[in-house]
Design goal:
Elements: H1 2-37, H2 43-74, H3 78-94, H4 104-127, H5 129-132, H6 138-165, H7 178-200, H8 212-222
């Protein structure tokens, strides 16, 4: 029973984690960045600014990924670092609530930090898979996480789209500014993320093996 709890708590993290990539990165942040944070009359400028934000976050992760990967493979604080980066993503996403119209630099800063938290958290999330699943079940558990991720991210995105198109269905007055709806999406994402992060706390570090990946690599080389 405990193994099943660990498996599903690990997989449900992806459920919440994917909500960021669908709702924020792919869905609504680019839309509201153009219409509110940047200049709505200059699409080229807003696209350029958003491109800078995505490039900066990708470069930072590319530079630090080898270090974070080494820590993930050999360290014993994987879960703590995962939670740290996950909370960074949640807090920076929710911080967009306080960004005013036209303050694109501040919006970019919060977005970049949130994306770094999202991407860095994924490194430690993936590194915990051997602690959750036996070697013969790794593929199954990994597929379960991906499946729940697509399901969770897709469902939240669907709800957000319905809220955007039919705010009255959710008790949101039509007179509310567009950005208020987006802020609600962000807080909803943060709440879902934190909820499943609490589920994830079932995972124990006792079964961690410090050099598991190195050992497996050597075994594969000798065979």
């Amino acid at each position: 029973m405990q193994d099943r709890k660990k498996v599903f708590s690990w997989a449900f993290y992806d459920w919440a984690n994917s909500a960021y990539s669908t709702t924020v990165m792919a869905g609504f942040f680019p839309l509201f960045f153009e219409k509110f944070y940047s200049n709505p009359d200059d699409v080229i400028q807003s696209t350029y600014q958003l491109g800078i934000a995505n490039s900066v976050s990708s470069i930072v992760i590319a530079l630090f990924a080898p270090i974070l990967g080494a820590i993930a493979d050999r360290g014993s604080a994987k879960k703590k670092l995962l939670i740290t980066f996950a909370f960074l993503g949640v807090l920076m996403t929710a911080a967009l609530w306080f960004v005013g119209q036209g303050e694109w630099k501040l919006a970019v800063f919060f977005y970049v930090m949130a994306t770094i938290g999202f991407m860095a958290g994924n490194i430690f999330y993936d590194s915990l898979l051997p602690a959750v699943a036996n070697r013969d079940k790794v593929d199954y558990v990994s597929a379960l996480g991906y499946s729940l991720g697509y399901l969770g991210g897709g469902l939240l995105f669907l709800v957000n789209v319905l809220m955007y198109l039919h705010p009255d269905w959710f008790g949101i007055p039509d007179s509310l500014p567009l950005l208020s709806d987006f802020h609600f999406f962000l807080l909803l994402f943060g709440g879902v993320f934190l909820l499943y992060l609490l589920f994830f706390s079932y995972l124990s570090q006792k079964v961690m093996i410090r050099y598991l990946f190195i050992k497996q690599s050597l075994e594969g080389w000798h065979s």
